[in-house]
Design brief:
The complex is a heterodimer of chains A (105) and B (147). Chain A is built from 6 helices and no strands. By secondary structure, chain A is mainly α. Classes of the chains: A mainly alpha (105), B mainly alpha (147).
Chain lengths: 105, 147
Amino acid sequence: MAANVSAEDPVPTSAVLMAASKQIGLRCRNENVAFLKCKKKDADPEKCLDKGRDVTRCVFSLLRDLHQKCNKEMDEYSRCMYYHTDEFELCRKEQEAFEKACPLE
Amino acid sequence: MTEAVIRNKPGMASIKDMPLLQDGPPPGGFAPVRYARRIPTQGPSAIAIFLATFGAFAWGMYQVGQGNKKRRLMNRVIKEEKYAARRAILPLIQAEEDERFVKEWRKYLEDEARIMKNVPGWKVGENVYNSGRWMPPATGELRPEVW
């Protein structure tokens, strides 16, 4: 995991993750579902390490991608989320700007 | 002596026979005074009052139900959004925690092997339970370096 993170990557705080949650849910869906199925079969963390690494890699690459494509809107949205502790209702304006800049497709 | 002068009755033998001098009613008595209560029984009857109260209560509870339904529908959308966001992030958080746990657990197993090196018949590494499922370690402390 240390190899995936470099200096200027977005730090995955809860605000950043909640801001990007729709994108994560959409683009990393297969990895997430595979990881959860593995967990459901066996709760041992050592058995699902590789699928977990898939998930981490997918999410971090997605975050890096978003950070490069619509840097300013994502920073604004994350900052609003941080200020309002992940309350979606209070950040609608920044959310619309973010979704316009980086559409969900 | 003055009483005898004022209330004199000619021909009295002693002052014990003096006539009385009192403040009394006029002749024929006073006019009659009404002291009985006369509260008129008017206004709504008991059944009318009960029905009005029950009706107001029923209408009020109906309004409460309508308001609850509206609030539940509006909140459902907001809550669904929050839950979907949490569901999307959960695997990442769990994967990171798994990696950290596995690292700590391996270090702990090494420590256990070192400590129990000389005990005969001790199989290092775990499984204090016999069910075959993996259970998280029940030491009572999840992350000792944090506390």
